[in-house]
Amino acid sequence: MPDELKDLQKSRREAMAKARLKLYEEGFYALNVFSPDSTEGWVCNGPALIFEVKKSDDIDLVRTELKAELDEAYKKYDKRVFQIKDWAQIETAYEDAKTKLEAATNGKDMADAVYSAVDVIQKSKRELKSSMIQIWSYFYKTLNKFSDNLESLDKAAEGEIVNLKKYYEQMTEYQRNKLEPVTQKRYEDIVAKQDKLPEAKAHKITIKSKS
Question: pLDDT per residue over 89-148, tens digit each?
């Protein structure tokens, strides 16, 4: 790409760049803008902006805005996606934040209550994503250990059937609903064999070597 075009794209990005910042705690602040494109590292781009955040003239408006942010974070995710214990943690954080928000008399306390709850919700979402990937991986890995001929199963397979059931039960409702019908049926067919497994047969392996 020609350097002139790179410079043009860079200037367009700089011209279109916007940032929005909300501060709820009263006091004086210094705002610095840094340029990440500098060859000398991140340096201040221009002088610092000094400003004061004063007490809001309409504290109820602040409360309403923050309540909207809290509700948006809470309603963004479906209850069915989470494990019961994880969703209970989210609900507790949400209800506590609502109580503190109503009782608070200044913007800082309101914001602290709301953003603490939002952090809990977002953290639960991040952990959920990692957990879902891991459980799905374990489930399919275990499922694929079984041959197509389930009639050949015996007591030697019981441990893997127990593991398969464990991973299935660790899934959320959302994950189970995402399983293909053929996968769901195969799982049910395998689990149905657990109480009907014959004793494992002993096998003898003879190794012959030619000298």
Answer: 999 999 999 999 999 999 999 999 999 999 999 898 888 878 888 888 999 999 999 988
Burial 95-104 (b: 16+ CB within 10 A, else e): eebbebbeeb
Tell me the per-residue pLDDT of 77-96, one tens digit each, with 9 for 90 and over: 888 888 888 889 999 999 99
Global pTM reads 0.60
HSE, CB side, 13 Å, CA atoms: give it for residue 158: 10
Contact (Cβ atoms closer than 8 angstroms) between residue 30 and residue 52: no
Euclidean distance between CA atoms 26 and 6, whole angstroms: 42
Q: Which two tokens stand for residue 111?
A: 């914001």
Can you name the residues that pair with 29 across neighbouring β-strands? 51
CB 29 within 8 A of CB 50: yes
Which among 78, 93, 89, 88 is positioned nearest to 173, based on CA atoms? 78
Residue 77's nearest CA partner among 62, 66, 93, 64 is 93
Q: Are 135 and 167 in contact (CB under 8 A)?
A: yes
Handedness of CA 73, 79, 80, 82 (dihedral sign): positive
Q: Rounded to whole angstroms, how far apart are CA atoms 84 and 66? A: 27
